[in-house]
């Protein structure tokens, strides 16, 4: 699949996720704590009840999830979904469609793994459910010291967090050129299309409106992917769909 198929209007990406229902090493049921380095993200609760744990320079927070509630976070916020009732289902909206699939996230593995990009890459691989749970458990093991340090001594917690961010940067740096391509093909192209439409309207040209089309999509027919929070079903569009106002040629 061309990664651009995961970009919807405004360049976002959308997937439906059934959150993990197995306990991690700390006894809590849920997904993998991780951070995005470029992409903002939103969790819209479709069904069930649970929580999102977050950690940043502002400290630790636990946010309740319930049907129709939306939680949004910017790059840099470490987050983990908790599913205590084993019934949580989310619609996940990514600011930049296709960017998460290219690996804009970093999992909170133990420090010895995060500081070694090769070891990190091996630990982050998860093609089976068993591998995904092992990956989740490692991320939880690395998350706990970060959380505890931030809660006990904020200065020590900030030091650990900044060290994690620095090592996350080393993991992500080789991917930056590919990320730029995704942004230019998605969000930037959508913005340019909107600006083009303004120009057309100023000039009295309405032909671009004739090219409008509807987009009705379902999750891909492929089997669920092992995502960071559970089993993920991404939404993908047909290549024929064009953003309104896009210049021909």
What is the number of helices?
6
Rounded mean pLDDT is: 90
What separation lies between the terminal Cα atoms? 23 Å
CATH topology, what is it called? Answer: Jelly Rolls
CATH C-level: Mainly Beta
Stretches where pLDDT is under 50 for at least 5 consecutive residues are 240-249
| CATH architecture type | Sandwich
Describe the structure.
This protein has 249 residues and is of the alpha+beta class. It has one domain (3-234): Jelly Rolls (Sandwich), CATH 2.60.120.10. 33% of the residues lie in helices and 22% in strands. It is built from six helices and eleven strands. It has helices spanning 111-114, 117-124, 129-152, 154-172, 176-185, 187-203; strands at 13-19, 34-36, 41-47, 50-56, 59-65, 70-73, 78-82, 89-94, 105-107, 225-226, 230-234. The protein has a six-stranded antiparallel beta sheet with strand order 6-3-8-1-11-10, with no helix packed on it. The protein has a three-stranded antiparallel beta sheet with strand order 5-4-7. Strands 2-9 form a two-stranded antiparallel sheet. Strand 4 (50-56) and strand 5 (59-65) form a beta hairpin. It is globular, with a radius of gyration of 20 Å. Mean pLDDT is 90; it is low at 240-249.
Layout of helices and strands:
Blueprint: E1 13-19, E2 34-36, E3 41-47, E4 50-56, E5 59-65, E6 70-73, E7 78-82, E8 89-94, E9 105-107, H1 111-114, H2 117-124, H3 129-152, H4 154-172, H5 176-185, H6 187-203, E10 225-226, E11 230-234
Antiparallel strand pairs: 1-8, 1-11, 2-9, 3-6, 3-8, 4-5, 4-7, 10-11
Helix pairs in contact: 3-4, 5-6
